[in-house]
Design brief:
This protein has 210 residues and is mostly beta strands. Helix content is 9%, strand content 28%.
Length: 210
Amino acid sequence: MSGAAGGRGGTPSSAAPTTGVPGVGDRLQRRIPAVSRQVVAVYGDGKDSADATVVLYARRGPSWERVRSWRGHNGKKGWTAEHHAGDNRSPVGVFTLTDAGGVLADPGTRLPYTRSASFAAPRWWARSHWHDFDYVIAIDYNRVKGAPPDDPTRPEGEEKGGGIWLHLDHGSGTSACVSLSRAAMEQLLRTLDPDRHPVVVMGDRAALKA
């Protein structure tokens, strides 16, 4: 479910306190670069839950304003601070968002965008997953920034996993990615701006507050 907010037409509750992004404790807040003006916050329902709420915030002067929110999914087994390949959990942390791509044409993003049929999900996957990668935004976890999202290079080694993206939702948990509706992905792609140094802050709610 999406919720409009922020801006001059928003209510006072749409603006976060000057101390930081709502629900994010000092430990992770300090990892958000000072230059960042856009945050995609992924609030997992629980450590072992695949359900999440995703909120886009924009920095307006001293405050973080809520722009939009959506329901989504994360790793099918939940979250971990020590992600490794094949654990089916999403990594907790703060990661930059620098590159995008997908099967479909660029919908109008400012991020570098790579369109390629190579993003298409294998047809031996369940039909509900076939359009997962129509649009993707790479989460900069164990990858080379500036490379296409599907670049297989893993700077910290294969065991640490990789290929973690924001992508289209298929109605259930993922291998480690965060999934959203097509409308949500289109809005993120059209809104995220490299000049505003966007990052994703992600984890279950308890881990985010710690």
